[in-house]
């Protein structure tokens, strides 16, 4: 939700200065909306001295999540300003980079925790040092292109635009069920006989496939239409979610992990470009993106606890998968409705 704070600020201030983003903001986190556990230097610095559960909630949950939103909005807004015709491809490639972290960091964390010469504290510190190095590059390279937007910090009038509001509602449902496998797939695999060592790599498989999905989704969206692609990949993601309980041995579970990572990753990149496309003026890209993601982040917050409650109540994962699949499917239909109310029609390339 912190993205709604920083994205408009980027539009108003950073563009005016025409200089790299403020280091105070960049040093708070890194551009990745899914891997808040291990990928934020400040949150990691606090986590390395955490002793109790609530310490980790504050350090990695709240501080890490806040810093994530503070960095993601400006980076995405900056990338969107440099492209018009190929904006979807540019944003897809930009957000695909976060999937690399989702592959590298779980594996690195697992290896370092298994090393008897490294404590948990130093494991987290090492990851934090890597973050600082990566963010230093970001501080030096991310710049605004357009002059500042004049007017209010937010754009309340945007919520009077039916296509934009419909898109926000659609993606709220999609996000509500989207991240269930990211939380529960390793436990599901272990329950069905997969070794702990192999199940630990499922997150890396999900994120590795997500890299290609995010990039491909953006590239194809410029050819086939952004809303068309969003509807397509969201529908396929919902179908995969419904098929999840049928994967009960190692090979199908791994295949599901790869396919789900690919198509769900495309949703992430296409959400960004569709939110930005709702803004008629490119100077408002960051604000439209930040406001939309701030609202939909509530779904990311409440979705996993809901599915977790279903797993606990029924003692299995089928009900959670069906709930998540239904939510994502509602999001797919909503994306199609958002395209229709934009006045372009169902069959246009939008």
TrEMBL record:
Gene3D superfamilies: MFS general substrate transporter like domains. Residues 163-350 form the Major facilitator superfamily (MFS) profile domain. Keywords: Membrane, Transmembrane, Transmembrane helix. InterPro entries: MFS, MFS_dom, MFS_trans_sf, Proton-linked_MCT. It is a multi-pass membrane protein. GO terms for cellular component: membrane. It comes from the Eukaryota. It holds the Pfam family MFS_1. The chain crosses the membrane at residues 53-76, 88-108, 120-142, 162-184, 196-215, 227-247, 253-276, 288-308, 320-341. Residues 1-30 are annotated as: Disordered. It is found in: Membrane. GO terms for molecular function: transmembrane transporter activity. Belongs to the major facilitator superfamily. Monocarboxylate porter (TC 2.A.1.13) family. This is Putative Riboflavin transporter MCH5.
């Amino acid at each position: 939700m912190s993205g709604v704070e920083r994205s408009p600020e980027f539009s108003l201030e950073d563009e005016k200065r025409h200089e790299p983003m403020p280091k105070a903001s960049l040093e708070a986190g890194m551009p990745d909306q899914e891997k808040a556990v291990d990928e934020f230097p400040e949150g990691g610095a606090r986590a390395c001295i955490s002793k109790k559960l609530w310490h980790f909630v504050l350090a990695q949950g709240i501080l890490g999540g806040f810093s994530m939103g503070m960095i993601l909005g400006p980076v995405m807004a900056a990338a969107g300003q440099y492209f018009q015709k190929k904006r979807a491809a540019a944003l897809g490639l930009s957000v695909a980079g976060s999937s690399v972290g989702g592959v590298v960091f779980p594996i690195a964390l697992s290896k370092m925790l298994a090393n008897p010469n490294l404590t948990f504290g130093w494991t987290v510190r090492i990851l934090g040092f890597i973050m600082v190095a990566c963010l230093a590059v970001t501080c030096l390279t991310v710049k605004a292109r357009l002059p500042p937007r004049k007017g209010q910090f937010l754009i309340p009038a945007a919520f009077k635009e039916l296509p934009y509001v419909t898109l926000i509602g659609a993606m709220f449902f999609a996000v509500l069920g989207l991240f269930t496998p990211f939380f529960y797939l390793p436990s599901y695999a272990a329950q069905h006989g997969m070794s702990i060592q192999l199940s630990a790599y499922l997150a890396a498989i999900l994120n590795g496939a997500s890299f290609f999905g995010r990039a491909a989704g953006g590239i194809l969206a410029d050819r086939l239409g952004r809303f068309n692609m969003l509807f397509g990949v969201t529908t396929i993601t919902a179908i995969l979610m419904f098929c999840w309980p049928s994967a009960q041995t190692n090979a199908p579970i791994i295949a599901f992990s790869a396919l789900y990572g690919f198509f769900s990753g495309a949703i992430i990149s296409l959400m960004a470009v569709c939110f930005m496309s709702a803004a008629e003026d490119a100077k408002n890209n960051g604000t439209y993106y930040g406001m939309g993601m701030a609202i939909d982040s509530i779904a990311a917050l409440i979705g996993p606890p809901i599915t977790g409650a279903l797993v606990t109540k029924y003692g299995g994962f089928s009900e959670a998968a069906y709930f998540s699949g239904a939510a994502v499917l509602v999001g797919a239909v909503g994306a199609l409705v958002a395209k229709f109310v934009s006045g372009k029609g169902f069959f246009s390339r939008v």
